[in-house]
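Reply to dn_fold:

You asked what the input looked like. This is it:
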Amino acid sequence: MYGTTTVTVSEVHPAPYAQTVQTRFHTLSADQPEDHDGFNTGPAPYDFLCAALGACTNQTLRMYATQKGWPLTHVSTVVHYTKVPTHTGDKRDTFSRTITLDAPDLTEEQRQRLLEIAAKCPVGRTLQSTADIHDKLS
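and this is what came back:
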């Protein structure tokens, strides 16, 4: 389902943190909220990260339900991000998902299987793993 992708992000002047995000087919805006010295012209980076996890979760569940022929009418996911203190005093990035399935005809076993499948969405797996980031200047 996923291979490689390239996104170009460029500053928008004179706003201090405003960005233009160019994906393969879409142009988006990113910024910081006003209470973080931004102009709030678009979502903040962690908003995009939460959106990516939520979208991937919903798409993964939709694909699975469709393949199984299960009667899933609608799915929505609320993603909450926070840093949670650990026993060492460090803080750990933590994402919490609340998944709502509009599917009154699903059995409890099918609902639980969809919850298991949600844990396998590719963005979620990326966030749970250690990703490599390679930097270079051009």
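The chain has two domains: 1-43, 45-128.
Hope that clears it up.
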